[in-house]
Fold this sequence. Notes:
Elements lengths: L3 E3 L7 E3 L2 E4 L3 H12 L4 E4 L16 E2 L8 H11 L6 H21 L14 E2 L9 E2 L6 H15 L3 E3 L2 E8 L5 E8 L7 E6 L2 E4 L10 E2 L8 H8 L4 E2 L4 E8 L7 E2 L5 H5 L3 E3 L19 H15 L4 E4 L4 H8 L1 H9 L9 E10 L2 E3 L11 E3 L4 E2 L11 H26 L16 E3 L7 H11 L6 H19 L13 H22 L17 H4 L3 E5 L5 E5 L19
Parallel strand pairs: 1-23, 2-11, 3-4, 3-12, 4-8, 12-21, 13-16, 20-22
Antiparallel strand pairs: 5-7, 6-7, 9-10, 10-11, 14-20, 14-24, 15-19, 17-18, 18-19, 24-25
Helix pairs in contact: 1-4, 1-10, 2-3, 3-10, 5-13, 11-12, 12-13
Amino acid sequence: MTGIRLTAPAPGWAIDADVVVVGSGVAGLTTALRCTAAGLRTVVVTKARLDDGSTRWAQGGIAAALGEGDTPEQHLDDTLVAGAGLCDEAAVRTLVTEGPDAVRRLIATGAHFDTDPDSGAIELTREGGHHRRRIAHAGGDATGAEISRALVEAVRERAVRTVENALVLDLLVDARGHTAGVTLHVMGEGQHDGVGAVNAPAVVLATGGMGQVFAATTNPAVSTGDGVALALRAGAEVSDLEFVQFHPTVLFLGEGSEGQQPLVSEAVRGEGAHLVDGDGVRFMLGQHELAELAPRDIVAKAIMRRMREQGATHMYLDARHFGATMWENRFPTILAACRSHGIDPVSEPIPVAPAAHYASGGVRTDLHGRTTVPGLYACGEVACTGVHGANRLASNSLLEGLVFAERIADDITAAADVDDDAVADDRPAPAAPTAPGTVLPLVAPDARPGIQRTMSLGAGVLRSADSLDVAARALAAVQREAADPAPGSGKPAVPGVDAWETTNLLCVARVLVAAARQREETRGCHWREDRPDRDDAHWQRHLVVTLAPDRTLEVRRTATAAFPPVQAPPKKEQHQ
């Protein structure tokens, strides 16, 4: 354990539970529902409202081998190709074989997918990297919103205890170093307010992504890397964080646009839209067998190359041939977003450019979602299961959240059953939970825009040794200023949501840059201009990062492309 925690007041209130789930997207709520069904006292902690996470922004859909002629093996092959040699095949096989039934259970929970009006079968579309139609969608292009609606309704119907508007701070541990809960800060009025704690022997991080570390992203404002930062402070391993996927087709709102940007789903290309330059030329033809439906890293790189060749700030997505009816029925959300910005896709091409979208890496887990800290689990975008490798295959993220959430819940339930079978008198007295001891200096909130611009310029779609060195120096300066403010620069940062989020952003930014500097090749969504080739001899392996007690980062390279085993918590003994 690193023994590092954020500067924060001591908890003023506490809740006792069997499991606390941090996050309310598809991963978090699926875990919570399954744990609750197993009879576990479950608490869901979420940063905003229950439906404010990344899941509801997912447009395209959820991938699974549900169609006639499709098989899990074909889905596996497409996923491995997209992952550019770094997928963990056992994790991918778990995903694609358990995925179809997991989707059916989601439907049974109440999610409604678009169906063929004649046959009643689920309608399936294609996205980049898929050789078959296997993407189930809802509301045309509102899949995430429908999944979120169904899961939130189920959580409320089952009276799962929830704490909304709460930023998780740090992991609580017992005297053995095992998970004992989390500290959190509740924002605004409610049953609880201020800093408190949820005491539980199992903690599931389902906090989503870290897109807000960049100046422009498709991620909502809550995606500030809180789960990855918490896990690092708790001593967990993080892997593959250099592989940040930049979605190729994000609505271009002008140079210098920052914050959450509107996404133009890959499903638009799946239905036949073309990428063109300012002269109307389809530049993806001849670059890949799937043209516009190549894996996202290939499309994003092609767009960036064309932009550089022509000195342009964006390219275009042309779907005028869809006609008004198709736009209104199949992509109503995207149509409304474009029109709100003065663009009508029915009559004109859509200006697009890549923006930060998805973290393929995260907190390293095994196939049951266990991290290297006993009792701490991770699921969804915050986790690195090995499924995505160097580049996530389109629409695999919602499926990963479903499949591994179910596995985590089953593992927690099995551990709880062992405890219940023990004779109470023979149990050791529980150790009082505590937060780790070393206090991490907070970063002033006004440093946040600088961190984001530094990352976009130095560690964005295009990277090089020089750009990453500049970024590393800038981030180091922010860290030094937090630890030892310069005379006349003002008071140290005060504990609060803005300072905690900014501190988390700096943490994940440092990890990303450290890994990107060390990976001297181009692979998947990690593009080094100075190292343009893929180097399997030296780099078909993972980088694993931990946070040392002195707050320095320790980066090690695995021996092979296969993940080393995650050290599972010691098995509990059953007392007869």
